[in-house]
Amino acid sequence: MTHNPPDDPVVALLRGAGCVFAEQEAAILREHARDATELDDLCARRASGQPLEHLVGWVQFGNLRLSVGPGVFVPRQRSLLLARTAVAAARARVSPLVLEAFCGVAPIAASVANAVPGVGLHVVDADDTALAFARRNLPGGSGIHLGAGLGPLPTHLRGRVDVIAAVPPYVPDSARGLLAPEARDHEPPRALLGGPDGLDHVTALISAAREWLAVGGELLVEMNTAQYDLIVRDGRAGPSYECSAVSGDDGQTAVARLRRTR
Q1: Mean confidence (pLDDT) of the chain
Q2: Burial environment of residue 209 by CB neighbours within 10 A (0 to 12, 13 to 18, 19 or more)
Q3: Taking burial as the number of CB atoms within 10 A of a residue's CB, which of 53, 165, 188, 216 is the most buried?
Q4: 76 DSSP assignment
Q5: What are the chain's domains?
């Protein structure tokens, strides 16, 4: 990666715009820009609040560089917890079949494909722009399905999926104003907001997943730790699942593990 000179004006510009990792971002922008004119344009757009990942066309997710672009949700580093959990669940099965729901650009499916040879992959999302990037991030032969929830899945998958992993929209509607401006202004709201308590899509997915999971299969869902407590306390998982959680190091993120027992 290109190093930034002392008293770097690009770093100063980005820092003044509130970029926490100004030095790293300046190096990435320099690496991406073809000339000084393009660098000036990229810096101005970043300083205005456009996501760095949208500007350069990729995001580093673990050891993968995933394709992203304007108008799509950028995978968060906290979702590496879900990726690791999904990889472990897939590795525990022979010839696993894995589905990423609400996949966006498919970071979880891409992580599983990279780590689990021979895995069968399917992804589903309601956003065709995001799915165009998912196609770039996934191996050929992956099943890519456009539509809401799990409805677009082919019927031959019913009762056969070993792992369903998802980062559904789980930000409560009332918390939209608390989002970082680059997310609020440049990512689709339907990829972020999940209803009054943030759990509308999560609850619907839990209900729908039972039909598609094999007995013993796992539904893995990223959410806030407090939301997991709501799921368990309110009995939203229902009697078909054995529930547990994997907690993230940030103290905020949890991966709900729901194993279909019947």
Answers
A1: 94
A2: buried
A3: 165
A4: P
A5: 9-67 (no CATH), 77-260 (3.40.50.150)
